[in-house]
């Protein structure tokens, strides 16, 4: 019996690879296993190799595995592309239809299963993915009856017969595989999971759900990989709350429309990836100077320009902190897990309203699209805070004077009234302005307003600015990362500890303003600081050096080939530095 | 009841003496009072340029945004609070050059706001460059030998983009302009009002006198029917776009807010920000 393994299904994009992985993983999730998925896909609708790698475990996992146990192949290309990942003793389950072969140097065993023929015999070749699901389940020793509910949900509307046929395909696949395996069936039987119900979702689902729970009722967005799922979820759900999503003509419209709606008092988000964020930069400056709250999600992907649109990267960091001309207060939050993505969205809206400034929630492709098991989200943790939003009646202002929307205050935050309120009239402009919003070029006023705006960040409160995994007062290595690298770092850390190396781990959750006070003691108490990030120039390392110093002991571990870090890569690089 | 004086504030516009925008400012103030608004019920969103300053010269809520983006900001305001009356305003450069993408899509989206363009066929604030509304041969600092690009036929463009309210006016005719803005505000959907608003400093061709000589009032055309899109298009083409009055109105098509499924009839600003435990559990269960 084993407690965890990795399974991958591959084939041509558009031939059901997604649904094979989806059905298999939903069933495993219902049995109580923890899952962590990674999709390899291309920027095209049909054709091209695609695969879906899923790690299955009886305990929480937050990284893809170093190697592979089971490869399900719908074509020879899948075997040729992926066999090198298979561990010794791993297996390939391939459709017998294409006469699969396995390269001589492979350490895995090939099982040819007639996916297509079995499916065709049962009625339609379309069900070949169900045969593959059945075969996979046999290897793991799963109880096939778990699929009854799943298949009913997916095919129920097509009628009982379709449901029955698909179940039959799963059973037939399992039966065939069991016969093929013979005594080898013992090799990969999975330990029983706890059977607890848990959520199974991608980061983008959690972001969208977090926006909803955080009181957002409107979204303006333009489709882009890997952010579109956020708008797709919200357009299904927001109408139930009276709200909606507008698909705008471009990202400039998305951001400025969101600014308009936030100005008018509705918590509004937009979400995009690098190219969209580049277009939004001028508008972000407008939100900064007009002190309009707004939440913007940036799901990082490979840049620059169109770059690697369907691949992992963490290279927008500097652009998110410093992007837009001039100087504005801005907050950049980076969740490192799907749960955090949910809570961070709620908090992002709170901070945006409390500090009246743009808040960027930064994720990366792997966090946004990697489907994984999520521990329960707690309703009681959801809290709505609207800061200095003025409600109730306002006193009349004599002589057509204006409400002091930009009153200079100690904490830099001014009272905020919404359009439509009597006696609250003021002006809002991207031009430098006085306390009532009237344009002003007076030097003293300029300084007062700039200082007031920038002062807001000094008071910012974020619940967990750094996720700390600190076991040692003095560490040999402090590993620093952000976003989805957390799981790979945690696993590497365990292995380094087993080798006798003292490792602390700090995952930066508040990117800007940088949590210098939290990070400084950790850096000081480590012999070496290793910053692990998916980019080519060490952006987080540079930000760390700039804020915390100690450049002499900061080292880069970089990966920018479009793929997420594997635990052994982090381990090996740290080991080399040590 | 508020009067047009209630929509005046104590800010002195920085426009040149004789600028056409003064009349547009006055017409908005009069129209707002005439349709029965109180100053706090109106939001004027404007772009960048001389005309973009207009949101600061009206006693109402005002938002002066970035160049070319008055329309998406204004649409956002309206979507957030459908009880507000929202006017977007700006120049021909703002709406028909840098912001043209938004103009076309705001027209076809048909959210219930009024867009007033102060069209002077030139870039004024940057001191005299060609605009998408400048005629071929028009000499400016950026086209010293005369523009070789044809002017956009903006009213025809609006019709082809699916506009439900298209009007054009001239800043000298305060009465007609006020009336058209009133009608635009009352129209259930997106209303576009293009106003010839001469730049007395940089445009020495399209002057007040030039417009007086070249404009045709639709009221002088016998049998003109603003509900007839084909007639509107033919009339515009015949007069090279130089007509004033209500060019086209479609009263049948509903506004975006009334078509989009599930969108609240109450302002979204009044929506409850919390979701019930029961609803939350239901949303969570969908991922299990």
Automatic annotation (TrEMBL), chain A:
<keyword id="KW-0560">Oxidoreductase</keyword>
<keyword id="KW-0670">Pyruvate</keyword>
<dbReference type="InterPro" id="IPR050722">
    <property type="entry name" value="Pyruvate:ferred/Flavod_OxRd"/>
</dbReference>
<dbReference type="Pfam" id="PF01558">
    <property type="entry name" value="POR"/>
</dbReference>
<dbReference type="InterPro" id="IPR002880">
    <property type="entry name" value="Pyrv_Fd/Flavodoxin_OxRdtase_N"/>
</dbReference>
<protein>
    <submittedName>
        <fullName>Pyruvate synthase subunit porA</fullName>
        <ecNumber>1.2.7.1</ecNumber>
    </submittedName>
</protein>
<dbReference type="GO" id="GO:0006979">
    <property type="term" value="P:response to oxidative stress"/>
</dbReference>
<dbReference type="Pfam" id="PF17147">
    <property type="entry name" value="PFOR_II"/>
</dbReference>
<dbReference type="GO" id="GO:0019164">
    <property type="term" value="F:pyruvate synthase activity"/>
</dbReference>
<dbReference type="InterPro" id="IPR009014">
    <property type="entry name" value="Transketo_C/PFOR_II"/>
</dbReference>
<feature type="domain" description="Pyruvate flavodoxin/ferredoxin oxidoreductase pyrimidine binding">
    <location>
        <begin position="210"/>
        <end position="450"/>
    </location>
</feature>
<dbReference type="InterPro" id="IPR022367">
    <property type="entry name" value="2-oxoacid/accept_OxRdtase_asu"/>
</dbReference>
<dbReference type="InterPro" id="IPR019752">
    <property type="entry name" value="Pyrv/ketoisovalerate_OxRed_cat"/>
</dbReference>
<dbReference type="Pfam" id="PF01855">
    <property type="entry name" value="POR_N"/>
</dbReference>
<feature type="domain" description="Pyruvate/ketoisovalerate oxidoreductase catalytic">
    <location>
        <begin position="14"/>
        <end position="175"/>
    </location>
</feature>
<feature type="domain" description="Pyruvate:ferredoxin oxidoreductase core">
    <location>
        <begin position="475"/>
        <end position="569"/>
    </location>
</feature>
<dbReference type="InterPro" id="IPR002869">
    <property type="entry name" value="Pyrv_flavodox_OxRed_cen"/>
</dbReference>
<dbReference type="InterPro" id="IPR033412">
    <property type="entry name" value="PFOR_II"/>
</dbReference>
<dbReference type="InterPro" id="IPR029061">
    <property type="entry name" value="THDP-binding"/>
</dbReference>
From TrEMBL, chain B:
<keyword id="KW-0460">Magnesium</keyword>
<dbReference type="GO" id="GO:0051536">
    <property type="term" value="F:iron-sulfur cluster binding"/>
</dbReference>
<keyword id="KW-0670">Pyruvate</keyword>
<keyword id="KW-0479">Metal-binding</keyword>
<dbReference type="InterPro" id="IPR011766">
    <property type="entry name" value="TPP_enzyme_TPP-bd"/>
</dbReference>
<keyword id="KW-0560">Oxidoreductase</keyword>
<dbReference type="GO" id="GO:0019164">
    <property type="term" value="F:pyruvate synthase activity"/>
</dbReference>
<dbReference type="GO" id="GO:0030976">
    <property type="term" value="F:thiamine pyrophosphate binding"/>
</dbReference>
<dbReference type="InterPro" id="IPR032686">
    <property type="entry name" value="PFO_beta_C"/>
</dbReference>
<protein>
    <submittedName>
        <fullName>Pyruvate synthase subunit porB</fullName>
        <ecNumber>1.2.7.1</ecNumber>
    </submittedName>
</protein>
<dbReference type="Pfam" id="PF02775">
    <property type="entry name" value="TPP_enzyme_C"/>
</dbReference>
<keyword id="KW-0411">Iron-sulfur</keyword>
<dbReference type="Pfam" id="PF12367">
    <property type="entry name" value="PFO_beta_C"/>
</dbReference>
<dbReference type="GO" id="GO:0046872">
    <property type="term" value="F:metal ion binding"/>
</dbReference>
<dbReference type="InterPro" id="IPR011896">
    <property type="entry name" value="OFOB"/>
</dbReference>
<keyword id="KW-0786">Thiamine pyrophosphate</keyword>
<dbReference type="InterPro" id="IPR051457">
    <property type="entry name" value="2-oxoacid:Fd_oxidoreductase"/>
</dbReference>
<keyword id="KW-0408">Iron</keyword>
<dbReference type="InterPro" id="IPR029061">
    <property type="entry name" value="THDP-binding"/>
</dbReference>
């Amino acid at each position: 019996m084993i407690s965890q393994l990795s399974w991958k299904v591959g084939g041509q994009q558009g031939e059901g690879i997604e649904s094979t992985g989806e059905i298999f993983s939903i069933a495993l999730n219902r049995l109580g296993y923890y899952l962590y998925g990674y999709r390899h896909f291309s920027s095209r609708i049909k054709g091209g190799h695609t695969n879906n790698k899923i790690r299955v475990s009886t305990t929480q996992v937050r990284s893809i595995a170093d190697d592979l146990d089971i490869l399900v192949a719908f074509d020879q290309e899948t075997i040729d592309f992926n066999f090198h990942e298979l561990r010794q003793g791993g297996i390939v389950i391939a459709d017998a239809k294409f006469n699969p072969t396995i390269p001589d140097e492979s350490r895995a065993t090939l099982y040819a299963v007639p996916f297509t023929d079995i499916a065709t015999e049962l009625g339609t070749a379309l069900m070949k993915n169900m045969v593959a699901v059945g075969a996979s389940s046999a290897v793991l020793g799963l109880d096939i009856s778990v699929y009854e509910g799943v298949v009913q949900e997916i095919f129920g509307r097509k009628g009982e017969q379709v449901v029955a046929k698909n179940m039959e395909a799963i059973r037939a696949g399992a039966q065939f595989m069991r016969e093929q395996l013979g005594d080898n069936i013992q090799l990969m039987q999975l330990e029983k999971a706890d059977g607890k119900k848990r959520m199974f979702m991608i980061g983008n689902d959690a972001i969208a759900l977090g926006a909803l729970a955080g009181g957002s009722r409107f979204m303006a967005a333009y489709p882009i990989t890997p952010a579109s799922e956020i708008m797709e979820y919200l357009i299904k759900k927001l109408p139930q709350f009276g709200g909606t999503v507008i698909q705008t003509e471009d990202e400039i419209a998305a951001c400025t429309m969101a600014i308009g709606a936030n100005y008018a008092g509705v918590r509004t988000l937009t979400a995009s990836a690098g190219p969209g964020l580049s277009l939004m930069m001028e508008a972000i400056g407008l939100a900064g100077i007009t002190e309009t709250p707004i939440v913007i999600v940036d799901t990082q992907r490979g840049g620059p320009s169109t770059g690697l649109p369907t691949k992992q990267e963490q290279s927008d960091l500097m652009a998110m902190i410093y992007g837009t001309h001039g100087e504005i207060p801005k907050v950049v939050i980076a969740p490192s897990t799907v749960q955090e993505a949910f809570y961070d969205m709620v908090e992002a809206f709170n901070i945006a309203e409390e500090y009246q400034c743009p808040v960027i929630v930064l994720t990366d492709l792997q966090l946004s699209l990697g489907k994984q098991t999520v521990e329960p989200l707690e309703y009681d943790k959801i809290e709505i805070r609207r800061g200095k939003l003025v409600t109730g009646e306002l006193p009349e202002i004599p002589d057509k004077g204006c409400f002091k929307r930009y009153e200079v205050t100690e904490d830099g935050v001014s009272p905020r009234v919404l359009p439509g309120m009597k006696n609250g009239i003021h002006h809002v402009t991207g031009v430098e302005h006085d306390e009532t919003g009237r344009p002003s070029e007076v030097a003293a006023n300029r300084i007062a307003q700039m200082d007031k705006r920038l002062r807001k960040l000094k008071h910012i409160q974020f619940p967990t600015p750094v996720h700390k995994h600190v076991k040692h007062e003095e560490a040999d290595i402090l590993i620093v990362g952000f976003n989805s690298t957390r799981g790979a770092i945690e696993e590497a850390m365990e292995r380094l500890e087993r080798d006798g190396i003292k490792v602390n781990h700090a995952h930066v959750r508040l990117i800007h303003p940088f949590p210098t006070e939290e990070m400084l003691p950790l850096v000081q108490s480590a012999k070496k600081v290793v910053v692990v990030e998916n980019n080519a120039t060490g952006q987080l390392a540079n930000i760390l050096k700039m804020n915390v110093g100690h450049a002499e002991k900061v080292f880069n571990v970089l990966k920018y080939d479009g793929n997420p870090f594997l635990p052994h890569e982090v381990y090996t690089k740290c080991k080399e530095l040590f | 009841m508020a009067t047009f004086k209630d929509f005046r504030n104590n800010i002195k516009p920085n426009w040149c003496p004789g600028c056409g925008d003064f009349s547009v400012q006055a017409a908005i103030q009069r129209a707002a009072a005439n349709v029965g608004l109180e100053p706090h019920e109106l939001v004027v969103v404007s772009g960048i340029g001389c005309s973009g300053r207009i949101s600061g010269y009206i006693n109402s809520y005002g938002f002066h945004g970035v160049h070319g983006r008055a329309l998406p900001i204004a649409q956002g305001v309206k979507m957030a609070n459908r009880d507000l009356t929202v006017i977007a305003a700006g120049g021909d450069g703002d709406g028909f050059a840098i912001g043209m993408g938004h103009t076309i899509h705001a027209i076809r989206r048909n959210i219930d706001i009024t867009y007033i363009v102060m069209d002077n066929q030139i870039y004024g604030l940057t001191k005299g460059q060609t605009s998408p509304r400048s005629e071929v041969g028009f000499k400016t600092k950026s086209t010293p030998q005369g523009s070789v690009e044809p002017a956009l036929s903006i009213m025809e463009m609006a019709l082809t983009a699916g506009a439900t309210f298209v009007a054009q006016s001239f800043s000298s005719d305060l009465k007609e302009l006020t009336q058209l803005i009133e009608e635009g505000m009352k129209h259930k959907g997106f209303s576009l009002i293009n106003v010839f608003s001469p730049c007395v400093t940089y445009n020495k061709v399209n002057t007040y006198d030039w417009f007086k000589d070249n404009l045709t009032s639709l009221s002088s055309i016998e049998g003109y029917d603003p509900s007839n899109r084909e007639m509107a298009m033919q009339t515009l083409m015949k007069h090279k776009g130089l007509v004033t009055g209500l060019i086209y109105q479609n009263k049948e098509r509903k506004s975006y807010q009334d078509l989009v499924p599930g969108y609240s009839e109450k302002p979204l600003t009044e929506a409850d920000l919390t979701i019930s435990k029961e609803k939350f559990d239901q949303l969570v269960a969908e991922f299990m």
